Amino acid sequence: xxxxxxxxxxxxxxxxxxxxxxxxxxxxxxxxxxxxxxxxxxxxxxxxxxxxxxxxxxxxxxxxxxxxxxxxxxxxxxxxxxxxxxxxxxxxxxxxxxxxxxxxxxxxxxxxxxxxxxxxxxxxxxxxxxxxxxxxxxxxxxxxxxxxxxxxxxxxxxxxxxxxxxxxxxxxxxxxxxxxxxxxxxxxxxxxxxxxxxxxxxxxxxxxxxxxxxxxxxxxxxxxxxxxxxxxxxxxxxxxxxxxxxxxxxxxxxxxxxxxxxxxxxxxxxxxxxxxxxxxxxxxxxxxxxxxxxxxxxxxxxxxxxxxxxxxxxxxxxxxxxxxxxxxxxxxxxxxxxxxxxxxxxxxxxxxxxxxxxxxxxxxxxxxxxxxxxxxxxxxxxxxxxxxxxxxxxxxxxxxxxxxxxxxxxxxxxxxxxxxxxxxxxxxxxxxxxxxxxxxxxxxxxxxxxxxxxxxxxxxxxxxxxxxxxxxxxxxxxxxxxxxxxxxxxxxxxxxxxxxxxxxxxxxxxxx
Length: 512
Known about the structure:
This protein is α/β, with parallel strands linked by helices. Helices cover 24% and strands 23% of the residues. Helix 13 (473-480) links the parallel strand 21 (463-466) and strand 22.
C-alpha cells in the first residue's frame, strides 16, 4: 500500500481497464486525483444516522442533518475539480425519519448542490420490488430511493449521456404511420435558413436505390429534391471523423475531448453521395403521379384549438393542431467547435475580417458566431452556417471541400408521433431488485443499478469514480463493462471484500 500525502496519483494512459483504491478520508483522497480525469461518478454516501463504521472522520454520524448535508456539499465540490467537463454524476441517497417525521434529506442535498455549481438533470426513482417488509402501521412502507443525475453547471449543454445504451422495446406500434402515397401534397418547412422559414409542398415521389426522393415545390417557385428520412432512423445521423494525423477514428464528443493535440482537421466519413435529381430520367417509374393533399382532412376541434399556446412541447398536441408535415433538417450531426476551428484557420489564412463577412452577407453580428468556440460545455454562443451560407462563405474564404457534404446535405423528416427507432427511453422510474451480497457490507448497490449508470454515463474505456465505494460494486461493474474505476473508502477492513469482488486491485493508496 502506497502512502500518499500532497502528490497526485499517476493514472495510466493506456486503454487497459484498471482499478485503483484509495483508503482514507474522502476529501484528502479526492485531492490526490488529477484535474478533469473522471468520466462518471456513481456513488451512495453513508445515510445520516444509519450506520456507525467506528472510524474517525466518517460521514453519516453528524449531530444534525444540516451538518451532514454541509459536509457532503464540501466533498462534492472538491469532486467537481476532478470530473471532466463532459462528466456525469449519479448520486443515490436515502430518506430518514426523525421523531416520526420524514426528512427530505435527498432533496435538501440536491438543492444545495444546485447552489454549488451542479445542474440537476433527473431525479430517477429506484423502485425496489423486493423491498424489506415493514412492520409499521402508522404510515406506508418505503419501497423506493432517489438517484440524482447531475452534471457541472457550465457543462449543461454538452455532456456524455448515452441513453441509447438503455433503450427498451417500445410498446407503441407503427400501425398508424402514414403510407408513402400519403406524403404527396404534404407541407414542407425549411427552418434552417437565416432569419426566415420557407414553405412548400411535395409534388412528386420516386425511389432510387431503396431511398424515397421527394420533389418539393417551394412558395417562391423554386424546386428542390430531398430524400425522405426513414421512420426507422434518427433524424440526424452520427458521423465518424477520421484524423489523417494519427489515423484514429473519432466517434463522439468525448473522443474530441481526448483528441486535441493533432494538427489539421478530422475528415467526416460519409456514405456514398446519393443521386437526388432523378425525376427527368425516363426510366424512372413514378410511384404516385397524382397529388393527394391530405392537409384539410380530419379537422381538429379539441381543447388546444381554443388555446394553442398551451400545447407546450407535446408532439400529440402539435399533431392535432397542425397535422403531419415535413421539415428540412441537416442529414448529419455537426460538431460545431470543429467547424469553428476550421473556419478560424481559413479566416486567418486569407486575412478576411468578420466585419467584412457580415457586410457581404448583409448580416449584423451574425458571422462572429460561426467562429466562436464557446458552444456546449463552454457556453452557448457558437452557431453553424446554414447550407446556403456555407456555400457563400466558401467563395469568400476559399476553403476546401472536406466539410461541404457534412454541412450542406439535408433530408426531410416527418413531424409526427412515433416511437424512437432505437427503442423507448427508459425513463426516470427504474424497477431494480435489491441484491444480496455475501461478505457483508452493510449496504450494497444492486449491480444492475450501477450498470445502467455506467453504461449511460461513461464512454467505453472511461474512468468511473465511487468516493464511497463500500464493497466495491462500482469497481466490479466498471471492470465488467470495459471501464476503469477509482474507489475511495475510509474503512481499511473492506479492502479484502473489494479485492474478492473485483478480482483485481491494480494499485492501493493510503491517505490520512
